[in-house]
From TrEMBL:
InterPro entries per UniProt: Cu-bd (IPR000428), Heavy-metal-associated_CS (IPR017969), HMA_Cu_ion-bd (IPR006122), HMA_dom (IPR006121), HMA_dom_sf (IPR036163)
Keyword presence, Metal-binding: yes
Name used for this protein in its record: Metal-binding protein
Recorded superkingdom: Bacteria
Highest classification ranks of the organism: Bacteria, Bacillati, Actinomycetota, Actinomycetes, Pseudonocardiales
UniProt entry keywords in alphabetical sequence: Copper, Metal-binding
Length: 68
């Protein structure tokens, strides 16, 4: 198992968190996605480490931006 925390810019509400959670959850191997709107943190637990590009693409699909 791998756990990685990312910072996402632009989330302001529960709907934002749900959108990000749904998109990231669709990535292969993802077991859990925890989103904290206040801090912008998204913690992803997956079978194997994910590429930052894959997570960034999912976050972009949700309408937000992954902060490097």
């Amino acid at each position: 198992m791998a756990e990685t925390t990312y910072t996402v810019e632009g989330m302001t509400c529960g709907h934002c968190a749900t959108s990000v959670r749904e998109e990231v959850s669709e990535l292969e191997g993802v077991r859990e996605v925890d989103v904290d709107v206040e801090s912008g943190r998204v913690t992803v637990t997956s079978d194997t480490p994910l590429t930052t590009d894959a997570v960034a693409a999912a976050v972009t699909e949700a309408g937000y931006r992954l902060v490097a």
